[in-house]
Write a structure and sequence with these properties.
The chain is of the alpha/beta class. The strands form two sheets. It has a nine-stranded mixed beta sheet, with helices on both faces. Helix 1 packs across helix 7 and helix 8 crosses helix 9. The longest helix is centred in the last third of the chain and has 15 residues.
Amino acid sequence: MTARAGTTDVLVLGGAGVDTIVHVPELPLPYADSYMIDSGIRTRAGQTGDFVALGLARLGLRTHHLDLLGDDPEGDLVRALHHEHGITLTALPQPAGTKRAVNLVGPDGRRLSLYDTSRAHPDDRFPEATLRALAAASRHVHVTITQPCAHALPVLRETGVPLSTDLHDWDGENPYHEPFAYAADVVFLSAAALADPERTMRRIAGRGRARAVVATAGADGAYLLAGGELTRVPVAEPPAPVVDSNGAGDAFAAAFLYGRLTGEPPERCARYGAIAGAYACTVPASRADAIGRADLLRQAAGPDR
């Protein structure tokens, strides 16, 4: 990877919002008139862009987050999260309000997310001048698939800044994800909805610009496609009991990018990602946290499973 000067290591685009966490006795949740939730119902800042930004900052990278936020209590929570962790935030006004979701979390840490799509408008855009200036000052841009990031892709490609994206649980068919998949130099996605992960990964690399494609597979580790070769990435041992899978993919992406920006080969980057993802699964859904650089490097220095 060619080094690129900049005052920011990674610009994270989009994906700022809040989640309301509800712990449920099982998933899928059978129909009932009511459920008693003795673990409490909590709302905290942290959606995909927030978690990637947090993971990057905890690893010592200079991180800038750009998104639309409402002038509302949810937006205040997002601003407070960034202030607490020293993450630079450019928050553009969003009259529709800050993005929000409800996460149902089962006893095994799996989750089901319900997203409020009313907090966005088809005409939303990032100002081109702002986007160009922030991208020009960055070594790398991580683009979330939230509105209005798709409209920013042509401008970002013109700047020449390397891009990454996370397609999450793409089924390999939904056309919404394709512009992200084919514009990015590094592509992350979950293998959960893929009948043939290798086929989808090779299609991304063949039709787009990706030099590395990673498909995470939960307890089965991950797949890495780099240099035309597909390899398996072993799962990392969680340092504590698994309580919630929310944010694990974002943590994987952040640690992988840390490795890439520090000159590590793809296999080492993926090892970093597996360790960070395993750590994220031990963090209760009610708070936002990510592995620090010292712990990541210490665990990576040990033997692989």
